[in-house]
User: Which sequence fits this backbone?
C-alpha cells in the first residue's frame, strides 16, 4: 500500500466516523439503532470495517456525552441519562479482570528455570508488583458489578 493510498483510507475512515457521529449524536436517549441500519447509513458491508468504525464512533460520542450501549445481535442503544455509569463500570470491571488474570498467570512462571540472573530478578520483581497491584479479587469484582450495575 502506498503512502497516498494509506492517507486516502485514513481520510475516508475519518469522514465515515464524523458522518456516523453526526448521525447518532442527537438521537433521543433510549433509541435503538440496528446494526443493519448503521451499516446502511455507513454504506458498509465488511463486518470488520463496520466494527472498527463503530469503535471510533463510540469513543468520539463519549467525548460529546453520548454513550452507546451494545445490544447483543441487534445494534446499539443510546443510553438514558444516569445509565452511562453502567458502561464505564463494565469497562473498568473488564480491565480489572484482565489485570487479575495476568497476575494470577504470572505467579505460575517457573522463575527457578530462568538461568540469566538479571532476567530472573526482573521477573521476580514484576511478579511481585503485579500481585501487589491486584485491585480486587474475582468475588469482589462480581460484588462491585452487582452493586453498581445491578447485574
Assistant:
Amino acid at each position: 500500500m502506498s503512502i497516498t493510498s494509506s492517507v486516502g483510507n485514513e481520510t475516508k475512515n475519518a469522514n465515515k466516523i464524523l458522518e456516523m457521529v453526526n448521525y447518532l449524536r442527537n438521537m433521543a436517549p433510549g433509541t435503538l439503532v440496528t446494526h443493519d441500519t448503521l451499516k446502511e447509513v455507513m454504506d458498509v458491508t465488511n463486518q470488520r470495517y463496520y466494527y472498527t468504525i463503530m469503535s471510533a464512533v463510540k469513543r468520539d460520542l463519549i467525548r460529546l456525552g453520548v454513550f452507546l450501549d451494545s445490544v447483543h445481535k441487534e445494534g446499539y442503544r443510546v443510553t438514558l441519562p444516569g445509565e452511562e455509569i453502567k458502561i464505564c463500570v463494565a469497562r473498568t470491571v473488564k480491565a480489572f479482570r484482565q489485570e487479575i488474570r495476568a497476575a494470577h498467570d504470572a505467579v505460575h512462571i517457573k522463575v527457578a528455570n530462568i538461568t540469566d540472573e538479571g532476567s530472573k530478578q526482573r521477573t521476580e520483581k514484576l511478579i511481585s508488583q503485579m500481585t501487589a497491584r491486584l485491585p480486587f479479587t474475582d468475588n469482589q469484582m462480581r460484588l462491585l458489578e452487582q452493586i453498581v450495575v445491578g447485574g
Observations:
- The chain has two domains: 3-78, 84-148.
- Residues 1-7 have pLDDT under 50 and may be disordered.
- Strands lie at 32-34, 68-71, 75-78.
- Residues 68 and 78 are 5 Å apart (CA to CA).
